[in-house]
Amino acid sequence: MSEIAIIVKNISKSFGKVQAVRDLSFEVKAGSCYGFLGPNGAGKTTMMKMLYGKCTLDNVNGSSVEVFGYNPVKEELAIKYLSGVVPQDNNLDDELDVIGNLMVYSRFYSLPRKVAKSRIDYLLDFMELTDKRKAKIKELSGGMQRRLVIARALMNNPKLLILDEPTTGLDPQVRHLIWDKLRQLKRQQTTILLTTHYMEEAFALCDTILIMDKGRGVMRGSPVELLEQNVEKYVLEITGSHTFDMITDSADVQAVRVDRSAETMRLYSDNEQHWKQLASQLEGAHYYLRQTNLEDVFLKATGRELNEKQ
Amino acid sequence: MKSNENFLYPPLWKRLHSVWFRHMRVYTKNIFSNGLPPFLEPLLFLAGIGLGLGKYITESMEGLAYIEFLGTGLLMTSAMFTASFECTFGPFIRLVFAKVYDGMLAAPLTANNLIIGEMIWAGTKGLFFSFAVLCVLSLFGIVSLPKCLLAPLVGFITGLMFSTLALLVTSFVKTINHFNFYFTGFISPMFFFSGVVFPVSNLPDYIRPLAELIPLTHSVRLARAVCTHHYPPHLLLDMLYIIAFILIIGYFAVKRLKKRLVY
To answer: Does B158 score more than 70 pLDDT?
Structure first.
């Protein structure tokens, strides 16, 4: 299936003097999972909100957004009808129980009562919340609340699922459960948009990743492409600033890419030969040789410095 | 790739109804703590007047015994207070703290739907609250059923009217404490200067135009007309005032609050 579900061209968004999104373009294939990585304040949430009309676009010539062929400025209702949204914060109605929350939400899609009930039964089962159907929201753990918000987003069987940091702050069990569910949805041809700070999450779920920084798209590609094209194969991590001096003058260090913070030094290279020689100079020091991962790509793309919003 | 499936997102009335339904479900969840006070409040008020203050006020007001005069006024103040609370603290919390609006706006609803649904709900609460007062009034024989049964309808319109103003105020408010200015500065004084406790005609000449400017005066006149079945022609002006108020203030409330929902 190679139809395009979302086409975004040159969109920008500023809040007063702050430019949250700058000249961003991307396309999402129907039935694929597209991930957005980026530091806090990179514009990921704003960009997602622009897709379903929760945020307006700056009026720039040549900018356009199409979601399933609909324009969020003029046809937000059609887009919202076809999409499910999991916002960053769990915004459930504390006054209502689990079923009550879902019943109220089913009305927004004007599902008939009977249809809503069976849909809710299915969703509770799908997100493994059936035991909690009568529970109050306050009695649910963070992971359960998150699963309930996801169930709510799936109410109308969406063709597009938008998830803003779906697993932040959750334990590994719940995270893996959510990943499994998202994979199932993907198999059923649901298009998934996802922001995350977990590199392994992006790696596990996304077909394409766009790394954003200061409102711009800075790198994109499949997880494997990103690794192959942007970072060396291996990284040697050395901790403890006092050991840095042992090797900084060595010719081998000059030959590799070095990324240094106060207490950690990372040496990147494709050439194993470098490590053997370096290791011989590092006797007694703390070091660790590993394969590079998306986090290394991320740090290379977005820099190590904190921005004013982080 | 425009979807060529035959789908229809819900029509306007269903969208408004779904917003109303959400508020109704949340409100009726605690039916006891939410539903009892509207009945108790007028009961206490009338007991205070009937047992105490009333016997000092022997003069009739606009042709009504004092307890009738006050009682018919209370029909509207209850609608005013509930709609004002509902559309100030309620939306502010749903917008800023609980972020309920974020969830609702992810469903097929526009910001306008949400705001107008909020107004209709406030009107409904106005209807319910004035109905509660009506129950108490008729229980004590202060007004007689069934001729007063139109009063809750006036309560609905009053609720609607005050919801527009409250939402307009909410669109300006940055911290929740600012609502205190609105309540102490505007809503509470209205209780005294709009012909609820004493007739507007008794006010000094230079204040009377002011009393005509504020919305509650017109609601109270309408409610009394309905309760006494006496419809003088100047009621048309009161009705015109209310309609214009709802349309104009409502327009600006939607326009301004929308900017806080979709930014």
So the answer is: yes
Please check whether residue B18 lies inside any domain of the structure.
no
Angle between helices B151-172 and B215-228 (to 10 degrees): 170
Residue A29: enclosing H or E segment and its boundaries?
strand A18-29
Q: State the average pLDDT for chain A.
A: 87
Matching residue, tokens 């129907």: A30
pLDDT in tens, A175-198: 999 999 999 999 999 999 999 988
Enter the tokens of residue B231: 């419809």
Instruction: Considering only the beta carbons, identify the residue of B2, B99, B108 that sits closest to A91.
Output: B99
SS3 content of chain B, % helix, strand, coil (to 5): 75, 0, 25
Q: Which domains does chain A have, with CATH numbers?
A: 4-220 (3.40.50.300), 232-291 (3.30.70)
CA distance B32 to chain A (A): 14
Structure tokens at B134: 């009506």
Does the residue B135 lie in any domain? yes
Residues A29 and A13: their CA atoms lie apart, in Å, by 24
> How many domains does chain B contain in total?
1
Question: Does the reported pTM lie above 0.90?
Answer: no
Range of the domain at B150: 75-261
Shortest Cα distance from B168 to chain A (angstroms)?
Answer: 20
Could you tell me the CA-to-CA distances from A199 to A32, A195, A202, A223 in Å, in that order? Answer: 18, 10, 5, 10
Does B263 sit within 8 Å of A68, measured CB to CB? no
